[in-house]
Amino acid sequence: MDPRSEVLLRQAELFQGAVLLAGLPADDLLGRLPAARGWCWHAGDQSALEARFAGRSDFGVNVPEFEFDSAVVFLPKAKDLTDYLLNAVASRLQGREVFLVGEKRSGIEGAAKQLNPFGKPRKLDSARHCQLWQVTVDNAPQAKSLESLAQEYELPLAEGPLKVISLPGVFSHGRLDRGSALLLEHLDKLPGGHLLDFGCGAGVLGAAVKRRYPDTQVTMLDVDAFAAASSRLTLAANGLEAEVITGDGIDAAPTGLNAILTNPPFHTGVHTDYQATENLLRKAAKHLKNGGELRLVANSFLKYQPLIEEHLGVCAIKAEVQGFRIYRAKRG
């Protein structure tokens, strides 16, 4: 059981009604709170919840339409995503309760101040290295559209400027990260056919490939619904078309690919997690055609080359700049 869920269950009498659990972990919390519903934007968590509690968790970037009497927001990593989530639930709960729960190392104490616009927050519990806060919504806000919180920036590419639209909570929100910037400089000689942008984030790489190689079939995949929504906005802003899907890692990707392009994630919340990338490297060959190429950028300290060579074939370092490497390997 996630420690945040354990803290909620210490006050279980508060959560017996129709409570919305926003950003809930994939544990047994829904089993312990039979009247509760979930709202999830992590495809892996949603899949696990759906398998155990069918029909009791909604997936996506917008607050679910069903009626709820109170809401618990599980503190996400990004402050601006916390603002969006709190606003979304508080706009529906005039005179009722919003709860915020999170780990101390995630900054829950400071994040509790984000409850101030709705009323006077109070700390209900502190245990399991977590805190639980509550506010009665005296000032229900006007619901903000997610698109109004998007940040836009422009990249000067050889084919013309590329607009990038990123939403709260998406990796490198509102700016281009160094790894993707390096990979953008090394998009030459990509195989034609079907390309996967794995861990697409705001859609920078997939959109850039589609702009440069318009005949390429591009699929963009991310575990996060906010990332997928950002990628769709980026494509639309540039008049580009590509398939955008959500799924829990490479297992959700198509097969028969000519190329996989990736600046893979290695953070989940405040925790470091290399599992999605290591799973990609182990299984990339199953998703690539013979001669298909993997092109990946990663921090130089991450020892990915042996793993790539073990599962895919000879791996070359295509570039090394400012602590990043681009690896290139082909399926034999």
Walk me through what this model shows.
The chain is an alpha/beta fold. The chain has 2 domains: 3-136, 3-Layer(aba) Sandwich (Rossmann fold); 150-330, Vaccinia Virus protein VP39 (Rossmann fold), CATH 3.40.50.150. The protein has 10 helices and 18 strands. It has helices at residues 3-10, 29-32, 43-52, 79-90, 108-111, 178-184, 204-212, 225-237, 275-287, 305-311; strands at 19-22, 37-40, 57-59, 70-74, 97-103, 122-127, 130-136, 151-157, 160-166, 194-198, 217-222, 243-246, 257-262, 267-268, 271-272, 288-299, 315-321, 324-330. Helix 3 links the parallel strand 2 (37-40) and strand 3. The protein is elongated, with a radius of gyration of 21 Å. The N and C termini lie far apart (43 Å).
